[in-house]
């Protein structure tokens, strides 16, 4: 496999054989644990080398995934059987640079959501090739959101209403909600005006749904940022 990027801290060639195995995510548990599962998202606590290494892992796995060089399941259970009537919209931010590609968001979904689930011995899927039951543009997708909104107001409609996004850390809320994600790092800033306008238009197509921030569902997260709630919070613009 020919790699598009130049890697400084990791050697992607050493992973070619690993990603050809159905349980590849078990073989790279140390890397996944250090750079993803145990990472709290606070960059100030990490060295530049650590952050660059983490970025390289995302880039590398993204390259393998785009090239169809990660062994995934080609069929599986209908994971949307638990879908309930939609009564909530949950707002997220990607906590990534705003120019991040959908491929990167897809890669992060595979790493942070599906790989840890398939790594749990208590689950019947343990050690099996990963299956999401969702496709986007004729490829299996691991994006957790129904809509992704960019800074310029354009958006991608990834998951359909009948599909469950693994987005808020609470299965009951997942089963009955629509997830809208701003492709941006909104920890300390609000979304752009264009992005807010687009999100508001999407929200209006679900007139009977309650609007929630991810942090209102999962109290341990700050997503979608510190400025979302409160009298001056940008949640009010979306209502």
TrEMBL record:
Please give the superkingdom of this protein's source.
Bacteria
What processes in GO biological process is this protein linked to? peptidoglycan catabolic process
Q: Where is the Peptidoglycan recognition protein family domain?
A: 68-218
Pfam families recorded: Amidase_2
Q: List the molecular function annotations (GO) for this entry.
A: N-acetylmuramoyl-L-alanine amidase activity; zinc ion binding
Q: Which InterPro entries match?
A: Amidase/PGRP_sf, Amidase_domain, PGRP, PGRP_domain_met/bac
Family classification: Belongs to the N-acetylmuramoyl-L-alanine amidase 2 family.
Q: State the PANTHER family in the record.
A: PEPTIDOGLYCAN RECOGNITION PROTEIN, PEPTIDOGLYCAN-RECOGNITION PROTEIN LC-RELATED
* Protein's UniProt name: Peptidoglycan recognition protein family domain-containing protein
Lineage, broadest ranks: Bacteria, Candidatus Roizmaniibacteriota
